[in-house]
Design a protein that fits this description.
Number of strands: 20
Helix content: under 10%
Strand content: over 45%
Radius of gyration: 21 Å
Length: 281
């Protein structure tokens, strides 16, 4: 059993019905299901990023007075749930940490979960589906991406002035969202340094932060009034092609260096966002 935990101070013990772990595409997924002697069934799912940042918590109970699905806040799980003493030795598959926090059902009912993880041989699968991975390394500004998507669009199709542009978007685990727009595929930008601002139609990085109430259902829908838009300016730099054991095919890495402004007022200066990105060509 990879996870030992308590629910509202009650140790969850019994027959382990399912136990799963996997490190893939920068996310560590852990699931354990337990059926207790009184028939109560509990399943806990934890998703962490490879640096220990928390991405998701889902808890399911059955055959009890508290039946249902419980969640830590979607896109902001660390607002109610904490990870401590995180250690991950990828070379030999050892993973350990402790956790504690609250999960919620329908914004009304809550459960308090505490526990520990101690794994000696976590499963690992090379990444097949990386799109955009952003993971900052300086504590002055954190952005740890947990979901991303990309699109390649054609402007003026069928005309002599036809051209493509490339868009990447990513949500972080702390209620942040970025939208990157490139005039050329990343594979054509190796070795270049490119200036941008968020009004540039060719190269831009747009940035939002979530300001609404806890979101418990998983959703990556359109941005609404609960998202605050900031202005940005900066550059793409240090772009290079790489190939390593994390991914099954070559990818591209670089650094976004940008200022973040709120109605013209500088909020963060020279934020560095190292990224890995796949080609769309």
């Amino acid at each position: 059993m990879s996870i030992v935990f308590s629910d509202n101070n009650h140790p969850v013990k019994g027959k382990v019905k399912y136990d799963y772990n996997l490190d893939n595409c920068g996310q560590i997924n852990l699931i354990t299901s337990v059926k207790e002697s009184d028939g109560t069934y509990s399943q806990l799912k934890l998703t962490l990023l490879s640096n220990g940042a928390l991405a998701k918590v889902q808890y399911f109970k059955q055959n009890s007075s508290a039946d249902g699905n419980y969640f830590a806040p979607h896109l902001q799980p660390e607002k109610s749930f904490q990870i401590a003493d995180f250690k991950y030795e990828k070379a030999d598959g050892r993973l350990s940490f402790s956790f504690s926090g609250k999960v919620y059902k329908n914004n009304e009912q809550e459960r308090v979960l505490t526990g520990k993880v101690d794994l000696h041989a976590i499963e690992y699968a090379p990444c097949e589906a990386l799109i955009l991975n952003v993971m900052t390394v300086k504590s002055a500004f954190n952005f740890f991406s947990m979901y991303s998507s990309s699109t390649k669009s054609t402007v003026n199709p069928g005309r002599s002035d036809q051209y493509n542009y490339y868009t990447y978007v990513a949500h972080s685990n702390s209620g942040q969202f970025i939208n990157l727009k490139l005039e050329s595929d990343i594979s054509k930008l190796v070795g270049q340094e490119i200036d941008f601002d968020d009004t540039n139609p060719l190269y831009s990085v747009k940035y939002w932060e979530y300001t609404g109430l806890f979101m418990l259902e998983e959703s990556y829908g359109s941005l609404d009034q609960n998202w605050k838009r900031f202005q940005t300016r900066g550059k793409f730099t240090s772009i290079q092609k790489v190939s390593d054991e994390r991914y099954n095919k070559p990818y591209y890495k670089g650094i976004i260096v940008m200022d973040i402004l709120d109605e013209g007022r500088l909020v963060k200066e020279s934020v560095e966002l190292p990224f890995y990105m796949s080609s769309m060509d």
